[in-house]
Amino acid sequence: MRDDFRGNPLWDYRHHKAARMHFKTDNGERLDDIRRRALTVLRSYCEGATLGTEEIAGPLWALVDVTHGSQSVKGACDWFRVAAAYGEDEELRRALLAEAYGKIERALRCYL
User: Fold this and answer.
1) Range of the domain at 70
2) How many domains does the chain fold into?
3) I need a surface site. Which of 35, 63, 82, 103 has the fewest CB within 10 A?
4) pLDDT digits over 38-48, tens only?
5) CA distance 44 to 67
6) Please, is 56 exposed, middle or buried when counting C-beta atoms within 10 Å of its C-beta (0-12, 13-18, 19+)?
7) To which H or E segment does residue 90 belong?
8) CA distance 79 to 96
9) Both ends of the chain: CA-CA distance in Å?
10) Of 54, 44, 51, 43, whose CA–CA distance to 16 is shortest?
11) Rg (CA), the chain
């Protein structure tokens, strides 16, 4: 099932239009390294890095891909995406991002 999405520009995060240069992967890169890098990018975004929502799409796609489309990880990534799009109150937005990041970490525990 996972190989069906490889190379498909609609689903493969490496070919997705939102995948930016700071999150490209090599063909031989270990999945654990991809997961670590994706979490590092998301953690820096939670801490106030000036990335747009387009730049976090690549790491979110990568996390779903390395977990073989896990529903719990996908739901946690969707939660993060919604928290990142919240724009009314910056303090509340940061709290939502921290909670969403925690959801992603908890969802990834079985894939460590």
Assistant:
1) 2-111
2) 1
3) 82
4) 898 888 888 87
5) 21
6) buried
7) helix 90-108
8) 9
9) 21
10) 54
11) 13
pLDDT the model gives residue 46: 87
Distance CA 87, CA 83 (A): 9
**Given the structure tokens 């992603």, which residue do they identify?**
104
- Outline where 6-89 has alpha helix (H): 31-46, 53-66, 71-85
Classify residue 60 by burial, with Cβ atoms within 10 Å: 0-12, 13-18, 19+: buried
Upper half-sphere CA count for residue 58 (Cβ side, 13 Å): 21
pLDDT tens digits along 24-81: 666 677 888 888 888 988 888 888 776 666 678 888 888 888 888 789 999 999 999 9
CA dist 84 and 29 (Å) reads 28
